[in-house]
Amino acid sequence: MQDQRTIRERLEGDLRAMLSRHAKISGHLRNEDREIPLDWPEMAQFMENDEVLEALEARTRERMEELSRALHRLDEGTYGTCGSCGNQISAERLDVIPTTPVCADCV
Ligand SMILES: [Zn+2]
């Protein structure tokens, strides 16, 4: 298993990346200076783009929650312990999904 500092750096780096992505997306979504096309096909495209951005924003927010929960577990010293059965989560699994709160048996 990677040492805790490496894990923390990875989680914090991801969280910072998600934060800036989130800021970018929500800034774009709430930009009221955008010119809204009144022509139907363009308006449809415009709304579709917003829906894509909203879905992306929601996913980004979920990722941020997972990351900060994982960092919290690192702080508490419970990182790497399955929140369901209490067994150790395998290093391979943590390497692939560093934010996972449960072992492969409990998914
Ligand atoms: Zn488990």
Entry summary:
The chain is mostly helical and 107 residues long. The protein contains three helices and no strands. Helix 1 runs antiparallel to helix 2.
Keyword list:
single chain, mainly alpha, elongated, binds zinc ion
Question: What percent strand?
Answer: under 5%
Molecules bound to protein: zinc ion
Rg calc: 19 Å
Number of strands: 0
Amino- and carboxy-terminal Cα gap: 20 Å
Helix content: 55-70%
User: Which spans have pLDDT < 50 for at least 5 consecutive residues?
Assistant: none
The average pLDDT value, as a whole number, equals 93
Q: Briefly note the structural class of the backbone.
A: mainly alpha
Element string (H = helix, E = strand): HHH
The global form is: elongated
The number of helices is 3
Largest beta-sheet details: none
Would you give an account of this structure?
This protein has 107 residues and is mostly helical. It has a domain at 4-77. It is built from three helices and no strands. α1 runs antiparallel to α2. The mean pLDDT is 93.
Please give the structural blueprint.
Elements: H1 4-29, H2 40-76, H3 91-96
Helix pairs in contact: 1-2
Zinc ion binds at residues 82, 84-85, 87, 102-103, 105-106.
